[in-house]
Write a structure and sequence with these properties.
The chain has helices at 29-36, 40-44, 52-62, 75-86, 102-109, 126-132, 153-162, 215-223, 232-242, 245-268, 290-299, 323-333, and strands spanning 16-17, 69-72, 92-97, 113-118, 137-141, 166-171, 191-196, 209-212, 280-284, 302-303, 315-319. The protein is an alpha/beta fold. It binds pyridoxal-5'-phosphate.
Amino acid sequence: MSGYTPGEQPEAPGLIKLNTNENPYPPSPRVQEAVASLGEERLRLYPSPGAGPLRRKAADVYGRSPANILIGNGSDDLLAICMRVAVDEGATVAYPVPTYSLYPTLTDIARARAVEIPSSDGDETLADRLVAAEAALTFVCSPNPPKGSLVAADVIAGVAEGSAGLVVADEAYGDFADLNTLDLLDEHPNLVVVRSLSKSFSLAGLRLGLAFASEQLIHEMYKVKDSYNVSSVAIAAGVAALDDLGWMQANVARIRSTRDKCVSRLRRSGYEIPDSHANFFWLEHPGRPGEELYGHLRSEGILVRYFDTPELRGGIRVTVGTDSEMSALQEALAPLAPR
Ligand SMILES: Cc1ncc(COP(=O)(O)O)c(C=O)c1O
């Protein structure tokens, strides 16, 4: 197997980093305070195995019971747990493509078979085609990388309704869109909704994710997680982050506004950019391949994401940074502008 290829994390400072969908703003100051005031006792002892304090806090904030929530070491941990709980060797895993490039790797690790369903924005047959795969696990990511398109809640409900297997709604970027899939959980005991604190809450370095599902499913997922999968530092920081939702929401609003301004300027100069509901967007130039745009931006000190696959060679994925970082991007792209 080839393994997952993460976006570059350069050791040297100085690049404008728009390649791995991190938040350009710091997390709530309450997070720093919570981490700083963690007593040595909390470091000496093992953490709560189920991240109890954070589970209870998340239950409070999202209006569910702690028994419906599992905390992960990043949402990647939760996606791996979903695989472990539902996918045996030789089983089928289905997902629309293009999408998050970790799903094929998780499928390879499980020695399972991937059924990739080509899909584009507004695809009305998507639910039926996913159900027809009869997969042990189906991933549906919304907003979906690399373009930021949404999969409607009724499509996710349709997949969950028609599938005997597990359906995982990956909502790592959910806070940047107005989603209501948590409401589907009551009717669909085979649905897991996975959220991340890496993007909207600015905590990618800390590694925290939340899974929401029926009590029975969370119970099964709990059995196959690592014994202490979330550290005491992460638990304390996560509680503080969820205690300050307003901070996260203000940053999300800033990022959405920066995105919309930047996208409309770049479109006016001829770049092709589909609507995005996330903290990144997809950019194509009608006459230049993605690799050239990537190389040009890199030479200007700006790092974006280029995927060397037949479907994605035509463009680049750009993370939305601060206003000034996006001005630098626009300036760097101006000499190549199609008009
Ligand atoms: C769609 C999607 N899901 C999950 C993740 C993993 O996020 P986390 O940092 O919570 O593991 C990412 C990270 O880029 C992502 O793009």
